Amino acid sequence: MTSYLDHAATTPMGRRALEAMVAELGRTGNASSLHGAGRAARRVVEESREVVAARLGARPSEVVLTSGGTEADNLAVKGLFWARSAADPRRRRVLVSGGEHHAVLDPAVWLGGEGAEVVLLPVDGCGRLDLDALSAELDEHGDEVALLSVMWANNEVGTVQPVEQVVALARAHGVPVHCDAVQAVGQLPVDFAASGLDAMTVSAHKVGGPVGVGALLARRGLDLTPVLHGGGQERGVRSGTLDVPSVRAFAVALEEAVDLQPTESVRLAVLRDRLVQGIRERVEGAVLRGPEVLGATPEDGRTAARLPANAHLTFNGCEGDSLLYLLDSRGVQCSTGSACRAGVPQPSHVLLAMGVEPLDARGALRFSLGRASGDQDVAAVLEVLPEVVDRARAAGLSGVR
Asked: Is residue 334 annotated as part of the catalytic site, yes or no?
């Protein structure tokens, strides 16, 4: 039996979402058409938009449907920068944390080649944004900043960011804040209006929906320059024919994930703690990366510091890719904390930003639990991981320079 522990990468589609998608696939209609079939498709889209908005604390008019998280992040980062710098040429600074997902980092770097001044804000050893550094940056350059982008929860190490404090600091300087909440939705309470954010990214396939659909929540009145041009759909900032079946499945999956979140997050945290504790007992040199929350109770506040389904560890003397392939051969599917570019292993930029030594960062594994995870999955990892680590260490880090 295979244990799937890579839910942070993508989740299995839920039964209700799959049924909703299949039902819509059997119908014809472009949601921009004015005839009966088009109006029926439009009704499905707008009803789905209302569900997404209601579950995320937003107004339906604030939900801009996209092809997923990456497009939504690009629209937020590029669209905000272009709009803000056009209105005030002084505002050319783009602030992002050093631990952001590449869907935010790469558009920011690209803008750097287009005249933006990109500032990577430091994070601490747990991956949490340094608020003092942010405050100092805003005090010195607040009238030059076009936007700030800070993710709600880190996709690698699971660190939850201080969104409320970030928004308060930025608001004092009139700086709009975008937040990639792709990993947070379904694991943490997420309320767009209450957060004070100007824009927020969500993705369907991280909450039991299909790949290829998501949304950017953008507050009313927020000026965004389009990245895509065409038919002027989605408030004129995201042109393109909407994928009605996927939009419907997105809404169904999101509704279910948010409704289950209060109980599911507690269950997953218990499993996560059992997994981490078991690994520490069985594997010498295993280091948990990100906030230490094992044994935390809701009363002590530490449970809110880390995603309940995330366990990210490094194993000294190992290559993450070797660990991954060895585990896969034993029926355990997870992820590494490193990116492999052009066949050359690279340590995770998130771990490096946290101050982890490059050699240690290369031996990273991320176990991410989900709705289908249970005791049997924890047992499967604990049964095979000690041998896998021994084999990876025996192979050594040959080729490291």
From this structure: no
